[in-house]
Amino acid sequence: MALLAAGVLVSCVEDLSLNPLPSDQGVIPTYVVVTVDSADWPTDPIDITHTLVQGDTLALDVEYGGGCRDHLYAFVVSASFMESDPVQTVALLSHDQNGDECDAIVQDSLRTDLSALKAKYQESYQTETGVIIIHVDGAWSVRYVF
Length: 146
What we know:
CATH topology: Immunoglobulin-like
Strand content: 35-45%
Structural class: mainly beta
Helix content: under 10%
Number of helices: 1
Order of helices and strands: EEEEEEEEHEE
Oligomer: single chain
Shape: elongated
Radius of gyration: 15 Å
Distance between the termini: 30 Å
Number of domains: 1
């Protein structure tokens, strides 16, 4: 299980252990995995209200119930590309409410770095440029152009 408190900038690492750290500007880790299986990641309720890709950064506006504890997040994306034009993949915004039983509606802005996904694409297709459609939580699709 791997998550990080909202706001921590870390590089994708092999050790995917739970490691909450202090918040710093809403940056969450991205993990590129072979397949995305929600059974492997915390999936406490969270609504994505807006997405935007700028350069190699995916911005996610989210809303969830809580307010009493730090929540943990990770962006988990599959490196198993679906062959289409453009290529597609699936992703999961993993959310661990950390036992928060409060009922306030919390809004947060998260950012995650897609560079590791781009590198996997470049390695797989032997090209520097590309387009990937990322299907997030089965509800949102974003177009990542590099």
